[in-house]
Write a structure and sequence with these properties.
The structure is a single chain. The chain is of the alpha/beta class. 46% of the residues lie in helices and 18% in strands. The chain has two domains: 70 residues, Winged helix-like DNA-binding domain superfamily/Winged helix DNA-binding domain (Arc Repressor Mutant, subunit A, Orthogonal Bundle); 113 residues, 3-Layer(aba) Sandwich (Rossmann fold).
Length: 209
């Protein structure tokens, strides 16, 4: 089984290779990629060897081929429809993020319970009343749901999403979601990330004293 640490590095490889491809770079060695990404060349080779290697001895990596293969590993050769539950500032910002479409993630709907927000448009898609969520999921082929709600509402919404056939949840609510084992959850706790940054900053400041 591939470790989560390796899987966690794939999107970064994909991003760097995409930039190289856009710049017209045709091939790159693990050492050159190492210098760009500040990851050791041996780590890069070990990561890629988990999936067959991708390179040729004495040639390095074909950038376009490697970009495509990592994209397939990440499931980006397929389209994934997603909805957002929570049309506050964060929900609307995510709905307006155009790079999702470029990666194959298609924004299909956004829901909220606030009458002041319902009916507004986010990139041409009207914010729907949360009461319409179950019917919408039944009538549309949606793979992924994004939750940008207060934690008090997130658990109930996650239950509705699972019952509606959602197989993957991108969770921005500051709460762990009790979902079945066959439903994937990726938690993004923004304050946790900021506190981690604060910790590392405090360590640097201590060393500087």
């Amino acid at each position: 089984m591939i470790s989560q640490a390796v899987i966690g590095r794939l999107p970064r490889y994909y991003r760097y290779l995409g930039d190289l491809k856009d710049d017209g770079v045709e091939r790159i060695s693990s050492q050159e990629l190492s210098e760009l990404m500040h990851v050791t060349a041996s780590q890069i080779r070990q990561d890629f060897n988990n999936f067959g290697g991708f390179g040729q001895q004495g040639y390095g990596y074909n950038v376009e081929y490697l970009y495509g293969e990592i994209g397939k590993l990440l499931g980006l050769d397929k389209k994934h429809n997603f909805v957002i539950v929570g049309a506050g500032n964060l929900g609307r910002a995510l709905g307006n993020y155009l790079n999702f479409e470029r990666r194959g993630f298609i924004f299909k709907g956004i829901f909220d319970k606030d009458p002041a927000i319902i009916g507004r448009e986010v990139r041409g898609i009207k914010v729907r009343d949360i009461s319409e969520l179950d019917e919408f999921l039944a009538e549309n082929d949606v793979d992924i749901a994004v939750i940008t709600l207060p934690k008090t509402n997130a658990v109930d919404i996650a239950d509705r999403l699972v019952k509606g056939g959602i197989r993957a949840i991108w969770n921005f609510a500051h709460v762990d979601l009790p979902v079945p084992s066959d439903v994937l959850v990726e938690n993004v706790h923004l304050s946790d990330s900021l506190m981690k940054l604060s910790y590392n900053l405090s360590q640097i400041q201590k060393e500087e004293k």
